[in-house]
Structures are given as structure tokens and as C-alpha cells.
Amino acid sequence: MSADHFYRPEDGHGLPYDPFKAIVAPRPVGWISTRGPDGAVNLAPYSFFNAVVSHPPIVMFSSDSEKDTVAFARQTGEFVCNFVSAGLADQMNLTSASVPRGTSEFDLADLAMAPSRVVDAPRVCDAPAALECTVTQIIQPLDRHGAALDVWTVFGEVVGVHINGAFLNDGRFDTARADPVTRLGYRDFGRLGPVFALTRPDD
Ligand SMILES: Cc1cc2nc3c(=O)[nH]c(=O)nc-3n(C[C@H](O)[C@H](O)[C@H](O)COP(=O)(O)O)c2cc1C
């Protein structure tokens, strides 16, 4: 058996690169679009993202420091979470560039916008699905000593769901066909492996 590499994060990981995000992987990418109060459009990927409640559906994303996405979500109370097919990976990556506020990452990455139905923020036209969200909470996570971190976690209730019909199969969202890009650690991304079903013991 290989020796266990143990570390306490406060002491450093003792490895060439921090393994944390490679361990907590794969993570879905929430590609968050927002519109600022002045109408400016913003789009950026967040892999500290997930669904956290199913009824009502609630998603969250977490930002290291208050980036434009958090600022716009706070100011308007809205955001849209777009999903990333493998074919959109390069454009998604381009939208993570640091650009001055007011520069539309849709233009930067040559992405078509589509209007949302319930919120003002636009969505990515070619995404297999998009969730229109109303902000429910913005919290600052605490460390174990109770100190607030410079991290902002935004929760939003899903108030509108768009599904591109090409990814509906017998009334089910066909995740495999949507071919989602997932975030691993380092510079790595993943794609879906074989899909299999399990029946729960209580079913
Ligand atoms: C795949 C991917 C995932 C990312 N996930 C996060 C994240 O979870 N939290 C974060 O703060 N930044 C994350 N980033 C970096 C932001 O996308 C980047 O800082 C971006 O410029 C923020 O844009 P904004 O200021 O318009 O919100 C990620 C970047 C990529 C490429």
C-alpha cells in the first residue's frame, strides 16, 4: 500500500501544486450571466457552483473576492446560470479573462445572446440549458475561527428553466448528449464517462 500523504492546509500541502480542487472534482461549471444596473452585460464561469436545494430549486456559486458577477447579482438580484457543452469549452474559458467592467464577454468570446423570460440578464443562446435565478442570499463564508473570508457565496432560486429541445429525449434531459464540461484541478477539465443507473435500496 502506498504511504498516505497527510497535511493540514494551514501548514501547506507539501506538494508542487495545491491538490484541493483536483480532489473535489469533477465540479459542474456554472457559466453565470448578469446584467448590471446600467445595462452592461457580464458572463463568467464559476466552478464553485452547484445545486443545493431541489424544492424550490436553488443553486449557488462562490466568488473569491467580489467580482463583477457578484456585484451585478447583488445590485440587480438576478443572474442566469448557463451550462457548458464540450463544444463551448474554449469560449467559456475566454469569458474568464479579466476585462474592464462594461466589456461584454459575449462579444469577447463571439457568443450569441438570447433573452431571458423572467429576469433581465441574457443567456447563452447555444447552451444546452440555462437557469434564470433570483438571488435569495449572499453570504460571506467564515473560517473555523469565525473570521469572515473575502469570498462571496451567492444563492439563487431558479425562476425559469430553458432546455434546448435537442437535448430532450423521451421527456428526459439527456445529460450525456449535452456533453457537459466539468472542472477538475490544475488546468484540467473533464467530460462525462459512461452513464449507468442504480436503483436505491428503498425504491
Ligand atoms: C472553469 C473556470 C471556473 C472558475 N471558477 C471560479 C470560481 O468558482 N470562483 C471564482 O471566484 N472564480 C472562478 N473562475 C475565475 C473567474 O471566471 C474569473 O475571475 C472571471 O474573470 C470573473 O469574471 P467577473 O469579474 O466578470 O465575474 C473560474 C474560471 C474558469 C475558467
How are the SSEs placed, and which strands pair?
Elements: H1 20-23, E1 27-28, E2 30-35, E3 41-46, E4 49-53, E5 58-64, H2 68-76, E6 78-82, H3 89-94, H4 105-108, E7 113-114, E8 123-124, E9 129-139, E10 151-163, E11 168-169, E12 172-173, H5 175-178, E13 182-183, E14 189-190
Antiparallel strand pairs: 1-13, 2-3, 2-6, 4-5, 5-10, 6-9, 7-8, 9-10, 11-12, 13-14
The chain binds flavin mononucleotide.
Residues 29, 42, 44-48, 62-64, 67-69, 93, 96, 98, 183 line the site of flavin mononucleotide.
Structure description:
It is globular, with a radius of gyration of 18 Å. The protein has one domain (9-190): Pnp Oxidase, Chain A (Roll). It is an alpha+beta fold. 13% of the residues lie in helices and 33% in strands. The chain has helices at residues 20-23, 68-76, 89-94, 105-108, 175-178; strands spanning 27-28, 30-35, 41-46, 49-53, 58-64, 78-82, 113-114, 123-124, 129-139, 151-163, 168-169, 172-173, 182-183, 189-190. The chain has a seven-stranded antiparallel β-sheet, covered by helices on one side. It contains five helices and 14 strands. The mean pLDDT is 97. Flavin mononucleotide binds next to strand 3, strand 5 and helix 2.
CATH architecture classification:
Roll
Q: Kindly state the mean pLDDT as a whole number?
A: 97
Estimate what percentage of residues fall within beta strands: 25-35%
CATH topology category name: Pnp Oxidase, Chain A
Give the strand line-up of the largest sheet.
3-2-6-9-10-5-4
Which CATH class?
Mainly Beta
Number of separate domains? 1
In whole angstroms, the N-to-C terminal distance is: 37 Å
Profile the largest sheet: 7 strands, antiparallel
Q: Total number of β-strand segments?
A: 14
Task: Classify the secondary structure makeup into a structural class.
Answer: alpha+beta
Query: Share of helix among residues?
Result: 10-25%
Overall 3D geometry? globular
Give the CATH superfamily. Electron Transport, Fmn-binding Protein, Chain A
